[in-house]
């Protein structure tokens, strides 16, 4: 009987030890798992933050592209409008004018030409000073400005030279390497026409055949 009780006691002790050891191992394993999770969690959070940051950058980049395209369209629209305005204020050719409008024609045309030139120069200067304008448009405006100044110099030289030769008045029209000289006179001899043509051709730097002479009777 005592042996049986002793045996049961030993078994109970062994079972208790087993339970304690098993529980200790389970706790240890759980701690390892928790520790592994704690170590992995910062890396997971960091990776998640990186992904969120990349997504934000991607969205910002798309917005920047959209904004850039919009600004580009607006600049192109503004440049196109400026070009159209420049075309509108070009000096009309002599064929667009009524030559029978009296003695005031020369005075009126010069006033008109001066107004148009002032507006054209103002727009060209605005284009050259605008930092948002493309390099191509700025170069085009600079070229047109030089051409305009050159034409104005030719007009001044030829018109004043003809008046200095004794003609009552004269106008010089120049475009695309073709020139027209309008002289205020009752008539011109063939020799006078030849002299005016040669003088205008030399001053404009073109062939004499590219000069047309018109007479506006006084």
Instruction: Kindly name the structural category.
Output: mainly alpha
| Annotated CATH homologous superfamily of the domain at 101-218 | Stage III sporulation protein AH-like
Q: Main beta sheet, described?
A: 3 strands, mixed
Strand order of the largest sheet: 1-2-3
| CATH topology tier name of the domain at 101-218 | Helix Hairpins
Q: Would you identify the CATH architecture of the domain at 101-218?
A: Orthogonal Bundle
Count of helical regions: 4
User: What is the gyration radius calculated from CA atoms?
Assistant: 47 Å
- Please give the CATH class of the domain at 101-218: Mainly Alpha
Shape: rod-shaped
By DSSP, the count of extended strands is 3
Strand share of the residues?
5-15%
Give an account of the 3D structure.
The protein is mostly helical and 218 residues long. It has a domain at 101-218: Orthogonal Bundle (Helix Hairpins), CATH 1.10.287.4300. It has 4 helices and 3 strands; from the N terminus they run αααββαβ. It has helices at residues 2-88, 105-129, 135-164, 190-204; strands spanning 169-175, 178-184, 211-216. The chain has a 3-stranded mixed sheet. α2 (105-129) runs antiparallel to α3 and α3 (135-164) runs antiparallel to α4. The N and C termini lie far apart (159 Å).
């Amino acid at each position: 009987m005592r042996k049986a009780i002793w045996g049961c006691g030993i078994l109970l002790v062994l079972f208790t030890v087993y339970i304690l050891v098993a529980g200790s191992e389970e706790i240890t394993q759980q701690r390892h798992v928790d520790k592994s999770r704690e170590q992995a969690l910062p890396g997971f959070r960091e990776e998640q933050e990186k992904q969120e940051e990349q997504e934000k950058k991607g969205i910002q980049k798309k917005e920047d592209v959209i904004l850039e395209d919009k600004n580009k369209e607006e600049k192109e629209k503004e440049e196109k409008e400026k070009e159209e305005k420049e075309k509108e204020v070009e000096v009309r050719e002599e064929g667009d004018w009524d030559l029978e409008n009296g003695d005031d024609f020369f005075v009126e045309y010069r006033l008109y030409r001066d107004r148009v030139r002032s507006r054209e120069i103002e727009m060209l200067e605005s284009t050259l000073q605008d930092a948002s304008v493309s390099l191509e448009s700025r170069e085009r405006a600079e070229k047109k400005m030089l051409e305009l100044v050159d034409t104005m110099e030719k007009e001044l030289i030829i018109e004043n030279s003809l008046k200095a030769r004794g003609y009552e008045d004269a106008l010089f029209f120049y475009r695309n390497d073709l020139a027209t000289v309008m002289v205020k006179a009752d008539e011109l001899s063939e020799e006078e026409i030849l002299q005016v043509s040669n003088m205008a051709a030399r001053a404009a730097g073109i062939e004499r055949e590219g000069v047309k002479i018109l007479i506006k009777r006084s």
